[in-house]
Amino acid sequence: MVGGDSAYGFFCLKLFEPLVAEMVRAGFVPRPVFPGTFPQSEEHWGPWEDRERRFWSVIRQENGQPLGTLVTRVHHDHTRLRLPRPPQVFVIHETDPTLISHVITHADPDREDPIDGGKGSYER
Q1: Is the pTM of this model over 0.90?
Q2: Is 102 within 8 Å of 93 (Cβ atoms)?
């Protein structure tokens, strides 16, 4: 689908805009902007009609101290513009981009127990 990724990206930014405003009012700083950006995301899972992309955003205190990372799973359709499932947000403890990428690439968030992706866990 031509332009589909940008449409899904715009949708996610708008969907989470109120939550980002609440985070900022509470003194938290998401970087990159929540739910994340395409260059810092992974898409390896599912058929074209129910493809999963995992975005991430490190949440920091106003003083710059990292608290953890929010990972957002967005299931989307590459054959037409639709979301086959609602987005899901999970927490991982990692804040280093290389480790975040490893955790979100190898984790299975559908398991009932927290998922060990190396040094971090992926929790609901």
Answers
A1: no
A2: no
